[in-house]
Amino acid sequence: MAAPFRSLAEDTSRYLKSFELFLDRSSEHQCMQDFIHNTLPDILGSIGGGRPVFNVMGVGSGAGEIDLEILAQLHMKHPQVKVNNEVVEPSTDMLHKYKVLVSKTPNLDYINFTWNKMTASEFEKHWQEKNLGKKMDFIHLIQMLYYVKDPEATVSFFQSLLEKDGKLLIILVSGESGWRKLWRTYRASLGNTEIQCVTTGDIKTLDTKDIPYSKYVLQSHIDITECFTEGDEVGELLLDFLTHVVEFSKNAPEHLKKGVLDLLRHPDCSKEVDGRIMFNNNLEALVVGL
Ligand code: SAH
Hints:
Layout: H1 12-25, H2 28-38, H3 40-45, E1 53-59, H4 65-77, E2 82-88, H5 92-104, E3 111-116, H6 120-130, E4 136-142, H7 151-160, E5 162-173, H8 178-186, H9 205-208, E6 213-218, E7 221-223, H10 233-243, H11 248-251, H12 254-265, E8 270-273, E9 276-280, E10 283-288
Parallel strand pairs: 1-2, 1-4, 2-3, 4-5
Antiparallel strand pairs: 5-10, 6-10, 7-9, 8-9
Helix pairs in contact: 1-10, 2-4
Bound molecules: S-adenosyl-L-homocysteine.
S-adenosyl-L-homocysteine (SAH) binds near residues 62 and 142.
């Protein structure tokens, strides 16, 4: 029987702390930035059809760091264009951080932000009820499809909002990452049933509906060395993030703790570099649209 763990989603302040630590200890945002600076500009250059105003949407935007990077690249490609940017994000804390970041970032006058404090499915309902025929030039779903009930249906909905030359960017962990092995082995014992174990390889609807897309690998790792030092505060927070369980080290039975720790440092999930244990956090980006 699964142990009665408390999901990290229920403890907002611990979730935020462990998420920030994850960002600090991983190359998650670094690999996204490389992609945004090196690969995305050409893709952004092809959208908009010469229109003076672009409609852009970020879903599950978090604190907006990545969104603002994308918007900056879009602005470099289309300096005369004004942007309507819809943000869809259910977390009050994240939205607050995003707004603070916007207020501190210079030269964003070309963007008009609309804040939608809602989940993707609430947004879908809201959009349909308001019957907004508006079409989008660029939509991104970055590291958020784990939190929706039906990831493929969510992709189809947002894809249906695109202009003919619009693009949808999806970023998820890769099937080759350590996450996939961790979820496959321990998701049920950890009680993580509300999280979808979804990787880019699971978005099959694009192939079955013959929708054109391109795929890119974003190499990334998390330094999880501290997870193996009993009682280490950083290690415990990282373990919470990896298992999505509040105070996993304190609450897990010994055999489960040992099993998870062994898997985390197994060559299927991690490699050792200069004495540090580096968990494979490779991501993949799908860019949907012609
Ligand atoms: N895109 C950001 C944040 C990823 S974390 C980045 O890559 O840094 C996942 C985000 O999805 C969190 O901000 C979380 O609040 C949000 N989220 C959780 N459930 C969601 C849902 N059902 N619909 C939309 N966003 C959701």
